[in-house]
Amino acid sequence: MLLAACGDDSVDQEENENASNEEATDESASGDISIGFSNYAESTVISALWGILLEEQGYDVTLNQVEKAFLFSGVENGELDLGFAPWLPFTDQAYVQLDSEVIDVQEDGVLYEGTEMGLVVPEYMEDLNTIEDLQDYVDELDGTITGIDGGASLTQITEDDVMDHYGLDDFELLTSSEQAMVSALDTAYNNEEPIVVTLWSPHWTFGEYDLKYLEDPDVAYGEDDDIYYIARNGLQDEQPELIDWINNSYFDDDQLSELLLYQSEEENDEAAAKRWIENNQDYVDSWFE
Fold this sequence. Notes:
- The chain is α/β, with parallel strands linked by helices.
- It has two domains: about 1-115 and about 225-285, D-Maltodextrin-Binding Protein, domain 2, CATH 3.40.190; about 115-215, D-Maltodextrin-Binding Protein, domain 2, CATH 3.40.190.100.
- It has helices at about 15-30, 40-55, 70-75, 155-165, 180-190, 205-210, 235-240, 240-250, 255-265, 270-280, 280-285, and strands at about 1-5, 30-35, 60-65, 80-90, 105, 110-115, 115-120, 145, 170-175, 195-200, 210-215, 225-230.
- The strands form three sheets. Strands 1, 2, 3, 4, 5, 6 and 12 form a seven-stranded mixed sheet that branches. A three-stranded antiparallel sheet has the order 10-7-11, sandwiched between helices. A two-stranded parallel sheet has the order 8-9.
- Helix 9 (about 255-265) packs across helix 10.
């Protein structure tokens, strides 16, 4: 299994689109599969899991960590065969719709149901319970909301919709990375210091720390999503068995929480995925029946 990094949105797609589509078709026919994923916890570890399982079925798998926008454009133009793991129909609607004609969104392949995202604080901040309350905590929080990377849908929704809607003009959204956000949360939590972060469920931190979402009375973050995977057009016709296998897979709360916990404990995603497969072998085997 090869791990690659790509996602330069400056690639000249007009020059390479035909070649990419031909290459993707040839590779799929010969058992080569290119999986793309963005740098978010559930996407990286689910991609690693399917990389392992498809190699066990005889495929040569390349895992490609890509920028969020390229995950969708890469699947659309055939540079990627599969993409993990969009949140739909709301969070990632700027990139793809459930009824897209240029990307195969596998509606029969929902991987997880009932995601959540929002602003999160430690439980020890007992008097802070709603996003509206944040206006009274500007000084205590140094006017900072600790976020993840700037290209994330969660970041865009927080900055463009939520902060404006709730009048958080005195706050700045500090963008960095998921790892940096978790590090800041860990430091503040261990010292019982005030902090507010952008976070989502499922995420392993909810099993590690006592955290709570700030209530969003006006539903500025939108309704709950489900987690899907996407495939390039034509892959289902070429590899119907592969699509059936992934469509058979599903994670409930306990199963995905366990996988994400292993991810936080193991040295890499592949080790976490292998551990989860070993502990859930009968269930995984059922995906291939």
